[in-house]
Amino acid sequence: MLLALPLGTLRLRFLERGRPxxxxxxxxxxxxxxxxxxxxxxxxxxRRATNRAEGQRLRHLLRFETELWASGQKHVxxxxxxxxxxxxxxxxxAAVVLPCGYKLKGLDDSKKVLDPDKRSLLAEAVxxxxxxxxxxxxxxxxxxxxxxxxxxxxxxxxxxxxxxxVPDFVLVDARRIPQCPAPQRGxxxxxxxxxSIAAASMIAKTTRDALxxxxxxxxxxxxxxxxxxxxxxxxxxxxxxxxACPLHRRSFAPxxxxxxxxxxxxxxxxxxxxxxx
Length: 277
What we know:
The protein has 2 domains: about 1-60, no CATH class; about 75-270, Ribonuclease H-like superfamily/Ribonuclease H (Nucleotidyltransferase, domain 5), CATH 3.30.420.10. β1 (about 75-80) and β2 form a beta hairpin. It has helices at about 5-15, 25-30, 35-60, 65-70, 115-130, 140-145, 150-160, 190-195, 195-220, 225, 235-240, 255-260, and strands spanning about 75-80, 90-95, 130-140, 170-175, 185. The protein is built from 12 helices and 5 strands. By secondary structure, the protein is α/β, with parallel strands linked by helices. A 5-stranded mixed β-sheet has the order 3-2-1-4-5.
């Protein structure tokens, strides 16, 4: 009889490992005189409620894809970018085609997943399970030449081209990609509303973070492995102390100030309000 087992064994089996709970066990635990048994029953019921809520969240996250799949558009690509706001480094975009009905526990907008290890695990799971995925970049020189908004669009187009296939439809976070090879739809806050875009945001973010860690060794002293090029007080202090390196975006005001250059009027206002990342 399961109740004859130590409560620690039951907790490991049914709560931590998530094995199916046999019929009647919860009721028996709730009627047990041991407070630990009743606490275990409460914890199992809480886990069930959490799992139901996560399942509902993931179904809601697929609502755009589900509509497209139902219309016969099997290969739906989600596209997002990372690195619009930093003072240094490239913009990195990703495109992901998920299998129909795909659900990945914990998948969300990468900005909401604060643990870097969890982001990496989610990104690796998406890469493993995706029908196709690709990454595109816009380099620092292109950011300075085109401006950050259009450089982000360029990185997105390159990510779609890197899929190795032409998708039936493209879902994009907040924008429209020029010269996109498939019909597309821009969704405001799409990385929080579409599973495909969220998956792309996870790959874009982790890919760019890994690049900035590599650049940290090439350009020591700036702290790129820590702040990833974003305008933190540490980064701006290093910029004032060391000057700009080849990774710095000369069209961004703090970099121009460090170089003693006049600001480029209006340039930073060309970005879309929803395009930070």
